[in-house]
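Can anyone check this?
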Amino acid sequence: MCVQLISVKIKDMLKYLKQPRIIAAIILIALGIVEFIYLQGNMPRLALFMILGLLIGIALERSRFCFVSAVSNLVLMKDGRLMRGVITGLMIASVGFALMMFLQVPDPDLGTIPVNAHVYPLSWTIVFGGLLFGIGSILAGGCVVGSLSRLGEGSLSVIILTAGLLVGISFYELQGEFWYDNFIVNAKQVWLPAYIGWPLTIVVTLLVLAFMYYVIRIIEASSKAQQAVKPAEKTEKKKFSWKALLGHWPVTAGGVAIGVLSILAYKIVERPIGVSGEYNRWSEVICNAIGISFPDVAAIPGACKITASATEITWGLVMNLAIILGAAIVALLSGDFKIKYPRTFKAGLRVFLGSVIMGYGVGLAGGCNIGAFFSGVISFGLNGWIFGLAVFIGSLLGIKILQITE
């Protein structure tokens, strides 16, 4: 009896392993292992970025965590679960960053800003960039970091989004000298601990985030549509199981994961999470290849931009590819991988135009919603809050534009 049971289990396992999606997942896992071994042997620091990217990709794909959906769901359906996930992640990461940054700069009055903190000079470019990013991300149907996990799920529209993003960033870079000379060159980095001290910075940050969480709860409670959401909320109370890891996670888990991974990133590799910098690099590489040169502009502190040649393997390239890889592996294993593409020319054109607008916003603000907003806030830069507010307003405008044009 026992032998028969084992035989049946082996047959079921072999049948499972013969599925094309499982074979594809195994191949990707093997490639990932080979890449990790290579990086660990030759560039150990980049191997850490690979692990970080894999974990981010898995968390984003399993939780369906998306900054763009967080805004649109809250505004259109009064469903604030994703936005609450964002806030939860910010609260967790803020506490962790405060502890690590305090060890670096215990006396903020000295005027020193912690290493690699995303504290961008405070200028109108942050507002303009946030508005454009918000509008563009809604029209494109996704943001920068979210598009990486969606590509791993099989969304080919991300290819159009990436092309538009590179075009938008290139347009900005060609005009970068104008924006730098007129808005950024004399702008100051506003790092909150340097102005109000550590205790007040932590208290104010957490109180503002808690107030936002409370307001979202009020919005949800006032909506009759929330009745349809309540059953999904119960999934957040399910007990942990290894099998559940391949199922869809509660949306809050995405925020918690991003918060924890942000802390680990800053602790291990001394860099907050950011993904748009690699797009800046490739926009310059591509333009140089076709004979277009960007103006020589001084490096801007707090920006996510990465400058390197096309042949260099950068931390941004490794992490972005790892996000795609991590998302693809779990999507294949769970059966959620599916090739998707814009059904009409109009839909594809909207994705492209939206991503061009979004790319220009990335250039203006020095990052996207993960680098300029999330990492900006937890770095305690005032720029993060301003960019986040501008993105929210821009997203509202983007929703209105969609409603008018559809």
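Reply from J.R.: I decoded it. The chain has one domain: 21-231+248-405.
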